[in-house]
Amino acid sequence: MEQAREDRRVRKTKARLRQALTALMCQKDIKDITVKENTERADVNRGTFYCHYQDIYDMIAQTENALFEELEEVLDAYTTSDLRAGLIPILEDIFRFVQANADFCGALLSSQRDGALFQRLYQVVYSKCLEEWGELYGLCRDPMRDYYVNFLVSGVVGLVQVWVSQGLRKPPEEMAALAEALIRSGISSLGQPAERAIK
């Protein structure tokens, strides 16, 4: 019970630090943000900050790692059988994940660290696409598969990036439907094996 209370306190402390850092990242460059500023804004003791992070850059890295661990768990829940019914559910989860973390993603855009964020998103989606979508659509047997998969994943991640930069004006469900339509359109033009797979 005591451990559970401690865990809750740690989560609340990290949440306050993240909220404060997110606000600061929208105002100034990361290199200009100090631990003192972040802890004062979060109303957290500096010693507590250093119990969890080495510095601001370490905090950002740990926050990104935690986010992508969460995303990978979401994506790993889908099997090839699930995906045969359509890609919209998994795409909706990707867009909802970004929406749920819009504050931090938006702050990274403001700080011009979006390249690192979306490169990691690309890698996560690429892995899932190659392992599951590739088999589903018959791309794994195609000698041009690397080109196809890169094209498709770049399109999905590009949609997410533009969506975030424009303030998430469209709902995740609409963005997922658009992404699936573009994926199906792209795959249907790749050749007969892919065409047969999506019918």
Structure, described:
This protein has 199 residues and is mainly α. The protein has 11 helices and no strands. The chain has helices at residues 2-25, 35-42, 46-52, 56-76, 80-84, 88-100, 102-110, 114-136, 145-165, 172-188, 192-198. The longest helix is centred in the first third of the chain and has 24 residues, at 2-25. The protein is elongated. The model is unreliable at 192-199 (pLDDT under 50).
Describe the structure concisely for a colleague.
This protein is mainly alpha-helical and 199 residues long. The protein contains 11 helices and no strands.
Name a few traits of the molecule.
mainly alpha, elongated, disordered C terminus, 199 residues
| Overall pLDDT score | 81
Rounded Rg: 20 Å
Principal-axis shape: elongated
Assembly classification: single chain
Question: Given the helix and strand composition, which structural class is it?
Answer: mainly alpha
Described by strand count, sense and barrel closure, the largest sheet is: none
N-to-C SSE string, H for helix and E for strand: HHHHHHHHHHH
Please indicate the percent range of residues in DSSP E strands (runs of 2 or more): under 5%
Q: Treating each run of at least 4 consecutive H or I residues as one helix, how many helices? A: 11
- Number of E-type strands: 0
Question: Approximately how much helix is present in the residues?
Answer: over 70%
Whole-Å distance between the termini?
Answer: 53 Å
Identify low-pLDDT runs: 192-199
